């Protein structure tokens, strides 16, 4: 059983964070929920990645990260949720 090459290494994630993470105390806006806050003061920023494909996506807030996780990081689940909400309006 070989190592799954699609998986992102912890080192790769660490390097990306060091290079690209929004600075503590700076104003930052989540690309999903549009929440604007001060990094690590009023908003916690996490690096999101596609677990299945092993690709780093972008920094999002921890609430949205939890949300994506609850929907199994799957576009189908998210689309179903949007359709479901729309069907009950
Ligand atoms: Zn968010």
How would you describe the overall organization of this protein?
- The chain has helices at 10-20, 62-70, 75-87, and strands at 27-29, 36-38, 45-50, 55-61.
- The protein is an alpha+beta fold and 89 residues long.
- It has one domain (10-87): His-Me finger endonucleases (His-Me finger endonuclease fold, 3-Layer(aba) Sandwich).
- It has a two-stranded antiparallel sheet. A two-stranded antiparallel sheet has the order 3-4.
- A hairpin with a 4-residue loop joins β3 and β4.
- It is flat, with a radius of gyration of 15 Å.
- The protein binds zinc ion (ZN).
- Zinc ion is lined by residues 30, 32-33, 35, 60-61, 63-64.
Summarize the structure.
Helices cover 37% and strands 21% of the residues. The chain is α+β, with helices and mostly antiparallel strands.
Global Rg = 15 Å
Give the ligands present.
Answer: zinc ion
**Spatial separation of the terminal alpha carbons:** 49 Å
How do the SSEs run, as a string of H and E?
A: HEEEEHH
Overall strand count = 4
User: Which class of secondary structure composition applies to the elements?
Assistant: alpha+beta
Low-confidence stretches: none
- Helix amount: 25-40%
Query: The CATH topology, please?
Result: His-Me finger endonuclease fold
């Amino acid at each position: 059983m070989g190592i799954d090459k699609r998986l992102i290494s912890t080192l790769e994630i660490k390097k990306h964070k060091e290079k690209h993470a929004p600075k503590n105390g700076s104003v930052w806006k989540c690309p999903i929920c549009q929440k604007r806050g001060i990094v690590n003061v009023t908003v916690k920023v996490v690096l999101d990645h596609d677990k299945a494909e092993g690709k780093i996506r972008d920094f999002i807030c921890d609430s949205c990260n939890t949300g994506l996780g609850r929907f199994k990081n799957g576009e189908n689940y998210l689309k179903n949720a949007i359709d479901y909400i729309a069907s009950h309006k």
